[in-house]
Amino acid sequence: MRHHTTFRQLEIFAAIARLGSFTRASEELYLTQPTVSMQMKKLSEAVGAPLIEQVGKKIHLTPDGQDLAVATREIFGILDRYTMSVDERRGLKQGKLSLMAITTASYFAPRLLGEFSKLYPGIDVSLRVTNKEQVLASIADNLDDLYFLGQPPEDIDVVATPIMDNPIIVVAAPDHPLANQKRIPLERIARETWLMREKGSGTRNAIERIFSGHGLNIHPRLELGSNEAIKQAILAGLGISALSRHALTLNAPDQFAVLDVEGFPILRHWYAVYPAGRQLSVVARAFLDYLLGRGEAAPAAVTTTGNKK
């Protein structure tokens, strides 16, 4: 690569590769789109090969672009390790913490970050909330310090630490006929009209396992992409569902009925996850220690998962 490639160009390229968009990269880096386009043109000229191609409205990395994306991550990894050593000498007075979480974690993650930021006001904290597929892709690319997931990935080597209980409860409208019944059998609840998250959702997998373990099947009337959509559908009388108890955090206590169903709540955990090969920064380690010291759960030992398929 020729000498006139700049660090800023690599930073812009890394943002485009991660976000898949010139527009989003320019917004994240507070640059104009023409500036981003011009810098990418200069970077391609410096490399001597096209790095990004546009197909319709989507952009893709060329093979040379993919190689540069890997090299750029290594460069930024080296710089992160250098920054980490500086942070160690400086203590926890300042530094950066980059977190990513699945959407359900948005009910509690901001509160945890707020508490941590009060303890360490000099630390610059960022949190991105997105769907499970994007979180898993980010883990595979080793882009953030820690990830909040309800279920550790099975095909990536990670260290997964349980940080909080995540009970799954059966939720209905407050005027549902079963609202005040005790010990409702699974066979009875299976006959209800169910609303479910999309296939692949950790919560949905847990629900289906408990019913199939008793030889029962439930056929959802609607599949919805978010807990908020499911809650609105429940209140509209379209059916019942099972959700993380955390999904009701912001609702009034009497807004939903929590049904007393055999086998529920399903006891799960929230996990703080990071790639097995990643060395945690001083700041990320301090945040993980803070989570474990809060006493909201009795965490098991840190576990490494990742059965390669």
Give the termini distance in whole angstroms: 36 Å
**What fraction of the residues are assigned to beta strands by DSSP?**
15-25%
What best-fitting shape do the alpha-carbon axes yield?
Answer: elongated
Helix content, binned percent? 25-40%
What is the assigned CATH homologous superfamily of the largest domain? Periplasmic binding protein-like II
Query: How many individual β-strands?
Result: 13
Q: What name does the CATH topology of the largest domain carry? A: D-Maltodextrin-Binding Protein, domain 2
Poorly predicted runs: 297-305
CATH hierarchy class name of the largest domain: Alpha Beta
Total discrete domains: 3
What is the typical, i.e. mean, pLDDT?
85
Structural class, judged by helices and strands? Answer: alpha/beta
Order of adjacent strands in the largest pleated sheet:
4-3-5-12-6-13
**What kind of sheet is the major sheet?**
6 strands, mixed
CATH architecture of the largest domain: 3-Layer(aba) Sandwich
Radius of gyration: 23 Å
Q: Report the order of strands and helices.
A: HHHEEHEHEHEEEHEHEHEEEHE
- Count of alpha/pi helices: 10
